Amino acid sequence: MVFLRVVISLCLLMSVYANAAIELVEEPVTKGDISLFGSSTLYFKVEDYGAVANDGVDDFDAINRTIIAALESSSATQAVAVVFITNGKYVIDIPASHTQAQAFSFTGEDKVLWIKGNNSQLVSPQLNRGFFRFDKFKTIYVSGLTFDLETMPHSLSKITAIDDEGISITTRGFPGLNTLAPDDGFFAEPSLTGKFGFFLDSGAKHPSLKGKIVNNSAITVAVKSISKCGDNTYKYTFGNAKYLSGISLGDLFIRMARTNGRGTFKFTANETVYVEKVKIHASAAGSFNATGNKSVTFDRVTVKPRTGRYYATNADSFHLKNNRSIYIDSAFQESVGDDFVNISQNTSLNIESINGNQITLRNGLSLASYIIGDAIDFFDSINAVTLGSATIVAIARTGNKITFTLSDSIPAEFDANKSHWMQNSSFDGVVIKNSRFIKSRRHGILVRTPRVLLKNNTIKFNSGAGIAINTENGTTGSFSEGYIGHTITITDNVLERNSFNALHNSPEHEDFAQISMYIQGDGVLSEKKLLHDIVIKNNTFNFWVRKGIYIHSARDVDVINNQFINRVRFPYVTQDNVIEVSAATNINITGNRSTNDNIPSKDFVNVAENTEQVNVNNNCVTSASSCE
Length: 628
What we know:
Layout: H1 2-11, H2 13-18, E1 42-45, H3 60-72, E2 79-83, E3 89-91, E4 102-107, E5 112-124, E6 130-135, E7 139-149, E8 154-163, E9 168-173, E10 194-200, E11 219-230, E12 233-238, E13 252-258, E14 265-268, E15 272-276, E16 279-280, E17 288-291, E18 295-299, E19 302-303, E20 318-321, E21 325-329, E22 332-336, E23 341-344, E24 351-355, E25 358-361, E26 375-380, E27 385-398, E28 401-406, E29 420-424, E30 429-433, E31 436-440, E32 445-447, E33 452-455, E34 458-462, E35 467-470, E36 485-491, E37 494-496, E38 515-518, E39 531-537, E40 540-544, E41 549-552, E42 555-560, E43 563-567, E44 579-582, E45 585-590, E46 593-595, E47 605-607, E48 612-617, E49 620-621
Parallel strand pairs: 1-2, 2-5, 3-5, 4-6, 5-7, 6-14, 7-15, 7-16, 14-17, 15-18, 16-19, 17-20, 18-21, 19-22, 20-23, 21-30, 22-31, 23-32, 30-33, 31-34, 32-35, 33-36, 34-37, 35-38, 36-39, 37-40, 38-41, 39-42, 40-43, 41-44, 42-45, 43-46, 44-47, 45-48, 46-49
Antiparallel strand pairs: 8-9, 8-13, 9-12, 10-11, 10-13, 11-12, 24-25, 25-28, 26-27, 26-29, 27-28
């Protein structure tokens, strides 16, 4: 194997460097433009419409009427602002007659609106509703607000008994931490999309137990049944004995459920979205959902549970789909029930019909970011090859449907099945920098779109990969999503204790690593078009498990000058090489170091036989603290 690597490296060294991956030296996008909010902005105070801070009385109607009045005075050139004058707490008790998923839901029709919080707090007793939805605004700007729920939409308890034969645990709850009882009626609501349980490490020296995650990150388990045993005492039964592996008395358990689409914010089909200095302590689903917008900026936003709580959201913190430009700067995110950042594009699931060079899709509002002149790629996600491409020459909208007329006929083999997808390759790109993503149930950053810069972020204690660049599922028949990702630079980040979900680190989940990039199908090496031009350089990996970087079904990848420190040996987890490469071509791995590695006998890089054009040069693995 060593000889094979040497041959690969020497005979293809010149071609590797001649075809180095494209690095994003400059940011591909900038922050959104909010210059319209100047001296001519008209201000509407919520207090003038009846809102009173800190009195414990419902302010929903007053705030709603303030926004309506402001929008009546707004236009594409006239900015308006809804202002919370008092730095205090406003109660949002949504009436039963209000059926929308968010408390305040408005369509802007090219209006310009600023929700100016002045560090005020909005608190709601509803556990299955969000706060704001804005559609079709020219500019929507939200700043200086804190959001919270009076009670967390989950149940927290401590394990008091474990029955391995019955595959069950008995728990006692914490009613003083304003969480729900496990049999609360909330969990039976039909709007809930799933019922989950999370095991948490109790914090008592359990860094290497299967089924648990250090520092209160969570592992998801399916709850089969719940029965009440006594006052504040409940028995949970599971369908799989492996869920109890490594669990101890005194550990914590959460029952959680979520209502998709009912996050704190939902932004759809806006020209510019700018969220600044916003803090979220709790959400029924995710924090920020943005779809089909031209420009989206999140500047110094925080998602973090209040003291005594363990989770802030039950879904993705940032769920961003079909946005042309995304800029996230100086975010602080802690303890969420899914991915911290999930960036993707809708592709084929909404296709209604194909006719020659025309394609009609449902849910057209989510595709409002598409414009004439955009390039559309058609591809096969399983085999990792493109089928063809065309340019949008006309756009027609009928109701909630959108029809694209293209410059060329749609490829004959493209049939919108589970493996064939389409994607807009003209979007501007993504910047995520100077941010902290700590403790999620799934990935830290999940990116499935072109032109991405991830720089100077701290990503730690995530159950899944720290950074994932991938498609979903695979060739098992459950395949549901496919994406193209290219021109991605990952630099100067710190990743620590990610991919610690031991169940995910089983052999059937070999794609889990601190940084993972993969398409499940092997494809044809010479035709790979989906994941390419990826640069991973100058990153630090602390206390990492299983593997540092996994590259599968990709081409033109540079892995340069990364530092891996302190491999953590789990007794239940297979220990792999620092970097693994398979079904890939034109990969350059140079100048990387793994120190304090407790398995220095393993080769630094494992190159599978179905891989070609790999340069492995000047890397080091050692049990010492330095490679010198």
